[in-house]
Amino acid sequence: MLELQELGEELVALPADRLRQVELPEDLRLAVEQARGMARQDDARRRQMQYIGRLMRAVDPQPIRAVLAAVRGDSADETATLHRIERLRSELLADERLLFTIASRSPSVDLQQLRSLRRAALAEQEQGRPPRSQRALFRLLREIDRKTATPGGGADDERE
Predict the structure, then answer these.
(1) pLDDT value at position 126?
(2) What does the entry list under GO cellular component (predicted)?
(3) pTM value > 0.70
(4) What is the pLDDT of residue 154?
(5) Measured between alpha carbons, how far is 158 from 160 in angstroms, rounded to an integer?
């Protein structure tokens, strides 16, 4: 029971967009949302967390654990994906021709946006500025990767 309550604590701590990814029964989702609205760590929140732990008994915890592991980066698949995207970003910064390879794999990608982010990231590197465009490029490459990884190629289950 304590393990389920701790799992509930992690659910409450999740960002709202990640929480929407998790399949939860409506009563459990409502209880988690109510706990998220409780700012103070008092007896009411403790009782709410116990209630969430009780509701969790009726739910299969494996899918929840998998989503939480991916959020924490514990998942080996998630870590490998992030490393692959980082390598892709580095290769793209080194060679502009990689843009066309990305476009051939994902025809709906905005090449102009990729190209401009690449140019801005290179300019930031040269000038020693913070890597804002590199981060934006990484996020865009991750989004493209998620879209191509979903069944159907373009139906994005993610909420971004």
Answers:
(1) 93
(2) cytosol
(3) no
(4) 42
(5) 6
* Gap between the Cα atoms of 122 and 41, Å rounded: 46
Q: Report the C-alpha gap between 155 and 160 in whole angstroms.
A: 12
44 vs 34: CA distance, rounded Å: 11
Indicate whether 84 and 45 sit together in one domain.
no
Q: How far apart are CA 26 and CA 110, in angstroms?
A: 37
Domain that holds residue 103: 76-149
Would you say 46 and 18 are in contact if contact means Cβ atoms under 8 Å apart?
Answer: no
Do residues 137 and 80 share a domain?
yes
Name residues of the chain where pLDDT drops below 70. Answer: 73-75, 149-160
Q: Give 92-150 as a DSSP string.
A: HHH-TTHHHHHHHH-TTS-HHHHHHHHHHHHHHHHHT---HHHHHHHHHHHHHHHHHHS
Query: How many domains does the chain divide into?
Result: 2
Residues 81 and 141 in one domain: yes
Tokens (6 digits) for 17: 């967009």
Residue 87 has a pLDDT of 93
Contact assessment for residue 14 and residue 159, using Cβ atoms and an 8 Å cutoff: no
Give the residue among 45, 36, 154, 34 at the shortest CA–CA distance from 106.
154
